[in-house]
Design brief:
Length: 118
């Protein structure tokens, strides 16, 4: 997002929306966060639109595994300074990336031109 200010909104555990100061919105992908099969199918269906990063960048999406699940089943948005925002029932919270350690699967941002308004 080129250092733009970033506004993040997370509704429950269902979707992530990122808006930059240039008015860039990523698509809202509605999923049932408690249904791992749906989460994985959504990740698989949209993965060609996302570029994996070597490390976190402000505004990137972080894929994570929840305890007891070998596949990515949770996400958050990196805020900078080692912190990210995510929703874990019953609240949305800011957390330290270091607390999630090996559960972090990867960092992603949309590919150039993958979404018409990005």
């Amino acid at each position: 997002m080129d250092g733009a200010q970033t506004r993040v909104s997370i509704a429950g555990d269902s979707f992530v929306s990122i808006t930059g100061e240039k008015g860039v919105d990523l698509p809202k992908i509605l999923i049932d966060a408690e249904n791992t099969d749906t989460v994985m199918r959504t990740v698989d269906d949209t993965k060609a639109r996302w570029q994996e990063l070597s490390g976190p960048e402000i505004g990137c999406v972080i894929l994570m595994r929840l305890i007891g699940n070998p596949l990515p089943s949770h996400c958050g948005v990196y805020l900078g300074y080692g912190e990210f925002v995510h929703a874990i029932a019953p609240a949305v919270q800011v957390d330290r990336l270091s607390r999630w350690g090996p559960r972090v699967v990867g960092f992603y941002k949309p590919r150039e031109g993958a979404y018409p308004n990005v």
